[in-house]
Specification:
Radius of gyration: 24 Å
Number of helices: 15
Number of strands: 3
Largest sheet: 3 strands, antiparallel
Strand order of the largest sheet: 1-2-3
Distance between the termini: 17 Å
Structural class: mainly alpha
Helix content: over 70%
Number of domains: 1
Low-confidence stretches: 381-403
């Protein structure tokens, strides 16, 4: 037991160290990619830098607090958090609360503070999906239908905003939980095939999605419109070459590359830090996922293992999609790079998810500690047993002290 606990401790420290490195890189690159834009728009070159520090100052303690809470609490009240996220999404459609940005109602404004509820739906979708699929055959058809609609409701709201990227990610996460659960494979594959077929008409139903698809296939056909952003991203990576132009020396962030401090911050990393910087960031994400999955393999409870796997998969999926878009491997979509892109909603949602993941690890460590204490107490080789050979079992007082 002690060996397992030591392995978990070691992997957890490595996981948190890598996560901290990504957060620090994010702070540096948010400032480097935004100071010119922030000076022009807000007359304060450190505007986004200070905001990122503020978001981290709130998100990191929240992550720690969530990690100290029992995993069963998050699963038991998952419907409450999913309902809260749904209500926030509904608020984005209410005039005065929601605000349309670039043709989409993704933001909820409470005074001067803006929130993107879709980022939190990614986490709550995992939370509600775990108990739903694990208990699927314990429910009657009416309960299954009601809970299934409840899970899908905010995800469909994402499609109405429209936020096709978050919509697709949420569906992928629910499908992942379903696959990992006790849900029968034959039903899973049938549902998966049906879902993919339904996504095709949804994808081509909006003209702007079709334009993005064609821009992905040939961005130079419309270099000033639909292909502009990805071409500028290509130029950033070309300028960076192997060693980069140097921190703070990006040309593309000078109003050429849209969303340089957010969705396309990876392009600025490629330009300023070159291939070595890109390799470092990709390696850190791969290591984060690797050590995350190593921790998952040490979890004993199935629900905790499913929850932890889905959270690590979600972070890896979003990072992969962002990098794929920026490198021109996928059609352009508004997805940020976890822990590096500027923005509070994504950062808080990711810290929240990491906190839940760490709660599963903390719970496992406590279980191992209790088992270790029990074995130490009940072992015939213990000094207590040697001194009292006639002892037949723990008294009520001893039980209270142990457990």
């Amino acid at each position: 037991m002690d060996d397992i606990r030591d392995i978990i401790d070691k992997n957890q420290k490595l996981f948190l160290g890598i996560l901290s490195a990504l957060v620090v890189i994010g702070i540096v690159m948010v400032y480097s990619s935004s100071y010119i834009y922030a000076r022009d728009i807000y007359n304060n070159s450190a505007h986004y830098f200070y905001r990122q520090l503020m978001f981290i100052a709130v998100g990191a303690p929240m992550c720690w607090l969530v990690s100290k809470t029992k995993t069963s609490f998050w699963l038991k009240y998952s419907w409450f958090f999913h309902l809260g996220a749904s209500l926030l999404l509904i608020g984005t459609f209410i005039p005065g609360l929601g605000n349309e940005v670039k043709g989409a109602n993704r933001w909820l404004y409470l005074g001067a503070f803006g929130l993107q509820p879709g980022e939190f739906v990614k986490v709550t979708s995992i939370l509600v999906a775990v108990p739903f699929f694990e208990n699927f055959f314990k429910m009657n058809p009416k309960e299954r239908a009601a809970q299934g609609i409840f899970i899908l409701f905010p995800i469909l709201l994402l499609l109405m905003q429209p936020d096709f990227g978050s919509f697709t990610i949420c569906l992928a996460l629910v499908a992942t939980v379903c696959f990992l659960s006790s849900f029968p494979r034959k039903y899973f594959y049938s549902a998966l095939g049906t879902g993919i077929l339904l996504l095709i008409p949804i994808l081509i139903s909006q003209p702007y999605r079709v334009r993005r698809l064609f821009a992905y296939l040939d961005p130079w056909k419309n270099p000033q419109t639909s292909g502009f952003q990805i071409i500028q991203s290509y130029l950033a990576f070309a300028n960076g070459s192997i060693l980069g132009t140097g921190l703070g020396n990006s040309n593309e962030k000078l109003f050429y590359l849209p969303e340089a401090h957010n969705d396309f911050i990876f392009s600025v990393i490629g330009e300023e830090l070159g291939f070595l910087g890109v390799f470092l960031v990709v390696s850190l994400f791969l290591l984060l996922i690797f050590f995350g999955f190593r921790l998952v393999t040490r979890l004993e409870k199935k629900t905790s293992a499913i929850l932890g796997t889905a959270i690590i998969f979600a972070l890896g999926l979003q990072a992969s999609l962002n990098m794929g878009v920026v490198l021109g491997l996928l059609p352009t979509k508004g997805l940020n790079l976890p822990f590096i892109s500027a923005g509070g909603s994504s950062l808080w949602a990711n810290f929240f998810a990491i906190g839940i993941f760490l709660s599963t690890v903390t719970e496992r460590k406590k279980d191992l500690e209790q088992h270790s204490k029990f074995e130490s107490f009940s072992s015939p080789s213990s000094s207590y047993i040697k001194e009292t050979p006639a002892f037949d079992g723990p008294t009520k007082t001893n039980q209270g002290e142990l457990f």
